[in-house]
Amino acid sequence: MRALRRFFKRLTSWATRRQDEERLRSEIEEHLALQAAENVRAGLSHDEARRQALLKFGAVEAMKEGYRDERSLPFLETLVQDIRYALRHLRNAPAFTTTTILMLALGIGATTSIFTLVHAVLLKSLAVANPAELYRLGKESRCCYWGGYSQEKEFSLVSYDLYKHFRDNTKGFSELAAFSAGEPLFGVRRSGRGGTSQSYPGEFVSGNYFTMFGVRAYAGRALAAEDDQPGAPPVAVMSYRLWQEKYGAEPSVIGGVFNLNDKPFTVVGITPPSFFGDTLRDNPPDFFLPLNTEPFVLSDSDLFTIDLNWLNLIGRIRPGAGPASIEAEMRVELKQWLRSHWGDMSANERAKFPKQTLFLRPGGAGITAMREEYEHWLQILMMVSGFVLLIVCANLANLMLLRGLERRRQTSLSMALGAQAPRIVRQSLTESLLLAFLGGAAGLLIAFAGTRFILHFAFPKVGNMAGIPIQASPSLPVLLFALGVSLITGLAFGLAPAWIATRVDPIEALRGDNRSTARAGSLPRKTLVVFQAALSLVLLSASGLLTAALHRLETQDFGFNQSRRIVANIDPRLAGDRSNQLTVLYRRLHDSLSSLPGVSGVALCIYSPFGGNNWGSGILVDGHPAPRPNEDNFAFWDRVTPAYFDVIGNPILRGRAISEQDTATSPHVAVINEAFARKFFKNEDPIGKHFGQHGIRSRREYEIVGIAKDARYLDFMLDQPIAPAFFLPESQHDFLPAPKSKEANPGSHFLHDIVIATKPGVTLSNAQIRGAIASVDPNLPVISIRSLREQVAFQFRQQRLIAQLTSFFGVLSLVLSCIGLYGVTAYNAGRRTSEIGVRMALGADRGQVIALILQGAFALIIFGLLIGLPLSLAAGRFLGHQLYGLNPYHPAVTLIAVMALALSALAASLIPALRASWISPSEALRAE
Amino acid sequence: MLRVGNPIGDMKEKTDVLQGTLALMVLKTLDVLGSLHGYGIARRIEQISGDLLTVNQGTLYPVLLKLEQEGSIASEWGASENNRKARFYRLTRDGRKQLRAETRGWEQTAAIIGRFFAVKAEDLE
User: Fold this and answer.
1) Contact between residue A566 and residue A786 where contact means Cβ atoms under 8 Å apart
2) What's the pLDDT at B2?
3) I want to staple A693 with a disulfide (CB 3.0 to 4.6 A). Which of A143, A617, A663, A728 is the partner?
């Protein structure tokens, strides 16, 4: 207690030191006067009395020093002294200081910028109450609809019926909420106000969704259990961001009526600003609607389809409840529920029944689809930026060593005058740390700009959507990270040079020239150059591999024609329920767009290539044995209007395309791709064969009329061969086989993409396209318009961004390494001036001198290559999946990386070598 | 002769112990004499210890500062006997408590050491 009080006194007395000095001075003066007076009384002369008093008092300066040590914290004062000293040093070398801070800012900025993303995507919890109490169903996140009574590996999506079963029977949850896994768009128009409707993402959530998260409305109220009842008045909660950006935070929005897909909803509340829903994604929902409004607003409702799984579950566990016991409880409930639907299950599903299970996982971060998707990318970027930081450190260590050499005389003089080694190390370290913190501060600015740049290119804002809810401005963890990195960096590049600085012989100060130990510091410096060269090679090869992989992706044979194709994205649902008029709507859209000048063809489909969507199902071929329980009979499918294959430029290899002759009443047909033919008809001719997708009784559903060339549609599985796919005409509706006989997949008739082919040399403006669509139905929002080439490129934007970032870092590291090599070579060449003079005097010519210097430089580079090559191979393996099937042992890439390093090294070392060769021997010898 | 030297010298450990003793002497002096200035304290310590303890008087001031920072003593300006401005030190309540505790500790130590010195070789047989 007393020690603590004293510490604070000492801390504060540092501020009052001038006053304290004055007090001590007057106390001493008083003391001496009293003693002298006493001595005078004892009979001494005035002067002698004063002298005796001083003698008795002892050494005044030593005492003052002791007093100061007691008074305040000597450590703090030395620190301030060191910082002042370091600042003076840095001011005296502005070029050095600027370069150093710039390099540090780049290194720390790059690392911090990536860490900002790592923190947001991999580490952060949702902005909800006590995220640690939340648990979600499923080990990995799935999108968006899974049909049937069995799921591979785990049951992670559930139907509404199964959700209610879990909710009503699981005791361990205080609340268990469900929400849609898909990301439906809604056509939104404020009731009573004019204008066309705009599309915004929304989400269907159970009534206890906000209660479960412990999130209160920012304004108005959140949804409650009563809102999620059949027949309850339709209400919605709006996102803070839409309220701000679109409605200027108008209070009248709360309680206002909004038409969603032409159905009136009352907005009852606004979410808090920090809440973006249950999933970090680039289009967070702007509307939260109760699950029970789903049949009201969507004509192809999924709510009461018992075997359609489309809901995610997150629950808050009761205090004291164990997730493991809840998990066990839910597994039993799942089996009970499945057994109660035994009669509806197919033979295949019954066979898979024993394997059905589920898992609970911590749900504080919500549905972590982005984490799963980007974890490896972020690891790669973190490694790359870490390497850059290491190279920066190595370079700076080199610079500091050089500075130490220049300051050698000063240091040895200080030591000769009695400075102690720890104090010199501390001074030198203070300087490094100061630089590191200044660099870190500048790095934060770069990190902010860098993060914004990355977010802008990785998640471009589409239309009036919210964009990804990640803040580029540094949060507290990011600031702490930057501080920590600066500290470690400062130690990394400062410690060795500081220590080496003290390895001087004080006697050197007395010598004229410090030539005698010219090479003392050259081994650590050479090692650093070797290290930098090795790391640069790794970064160069990695960026080469990523670039090569991207090039391979972009230049592959896509199977369709990217040029002169425009894709307009719509959603007929958003204009309200007109499902019985869809074929007419498509016909009118086709005619309206075809009449635009320069348009050569128009067709619609559910999704065009790389549109980011897909439909798929299990196939049964007529005349083939039924697939065994674990046999893969999966194929993707699409629904298209006549002339689609022509418009998209996908050649029909055999048979015919889907055309006008396929109508609602004509026999149901399908066009398959080559992969489909290979997978299901190994040694047969598929034309004229039948297959179906709705169970064993539907196997004669479609007749195959044509085979299209393989075309890549999916934006995933890019490293795999093109998947089997089939195409169905929009005009034909599928029905489930008797006894159900209801329409199958009515939602597949809502076509989303309009593909427009133009004649060569024609440019079509977006306004023309929007106008043509609006002339058909002004209520139909156009979500986006872009060329097919842009649409394809858009899917590779993240790969491209990462390849570009890595290349940027690779080139940066190469430049830094060359600066390092240049520094070492130039320094060594300078040191060898007299040696070169002697050699030249003895008959060496210029070429030999150049060779001599280059030899030294290239020895370092070759060492670097020897270390870097195996590391590059390891890096290639680490990239793995991110190369999309490109072999990481890529000799061309390695060769280019090695050549780039060698040529840059040659350039960097040639300058000092040439300079050395121009020395005249007589001058060189005089320099002795 | 015991000599209390420069506190930042090489014999730091030893002077620390001695400084502790010096602090105790200061506290006791102030306890007995009430408010006193630095010179007065130094004189008093000299008088009582006689020639056995010669203190470099300057050494006293860092000790006074330390005690003041710990809150054992307090100081204020006043006038000395020859009417000059002087800093007067006095014991605080905390200081009195500390003095009592340290006196007890010191007496115990002295008693134990005394008993060791009283023991003769034959007593242990």
Assistant:
1) yes
2) 39
3) A617
- Specify whether the CB–CB gap between A605 and A646 falls below 8 A: no
The residue of chain B nearest to residue A31, with distances taken between CA atoms, is: B39
Distance from CA of B33 to the nearest CA of A (A): 18
CA geometry: angle at A468 spanning A467 and A471, to 5°? 115
Q: Does A69 touch chain B (CB under 8 A)?
A: yes
Report CB contact under 8 Å: B56, A69: no
Q: What is the largest distance, in Å, between two alpha-carbon atoms of chain A?
A: 139
DSSP character string of A636-673:
EEEEE-TTHHHHHT--EEEE----TT--SSSPPEEEEE
What tokens does A504 get?
């001087």
- What CA–CA distance (Å, rounded) separates A457 from A317? 39
Angle between helices A846-879 and A797-831 (to 10 degrees): 150
A582 near A732, Cβ under 8 Å? no
Query: How near does any CA of chain A get to the CA of B7, in Å?
Result: 6
Residue B5 has pLDDT above 50, yes or no: no
CA distance A177 to A312: 8
Counting DSSP H helices and E strands in chain B, the numbers are: 4, 5
* Bridging pattern class, strands A690-692 and A620-621: antiparallel
Which of these, A611, A541, A579, A626, lies nearest to A346 by C-alpha position? A626
What distance in Å separates the CA atoms of residue A264 and residue A189, rounded to the nearest whole number? 9
Task: Say whether A6 and B69 touch across the interface (CB within 8 A).
Answer: yes
Q: Which helix (H) or strand (E) holds A552?
A: helix A522-554
Are A710 and A651 within 8 A, CB to CB?
no
Going from the C-alpha of A627 to that of each of A618, A621, A695, the distances in angstroms are 10, 9, 11
Query: How far is CA A281 from each of CA A120, A201, A670, rounded to the nearest angstrom?
Result: 11, 11, 35
**Is A643 within 8 Å of A696 (Cβ atoms)?**
no
Enclosing H/E stretch for A439:
helix A421-458
Give the right CATH number for B2-124 from 2.10.260.10, 1.10.10.10, 3.30.70.1450, 1.10.443.10: 1.10.10.10
Q: Give average pLDDT by consecutive 10-residue segment, chain A, 928 residues.
A: 74 71 83 86 87 82 74 75 86 83 88 89 86 88 80 87 91 91 84 76 92 90 90 92 88 89 90 89 89 84 85 90 89 90 82 87 85 84 88 85 77 77 83 89 90 84 74 84 86 80 66 49 78 89 90 88 91 74 90 92 92 85 82 89 92 92 91 93 90 85 93 84 92 81 82 92 89 86 88 85 88 86 82 81 84 86 90 86 80 89 88 82 68
What sign does the dihedral B50-B51-B54-B58 (CA atoms) show? positive
**Contacts B7 to A, Cβ<8 Å:** 66, 69
C-alpha torsion sign, points A882, A887, A890, A892? negative
Q: CA of A41, closest CA in chain B: separation in Å?
A: 13
**Nearest one of A396, A388, A721, A716 to A542, comparing CA atoms:** A388
- Output the furthest CA–CA distance in chain B (Å, rounded): 66
Alpha-carbon distance of A492 to A634, in angstroms, equals 55
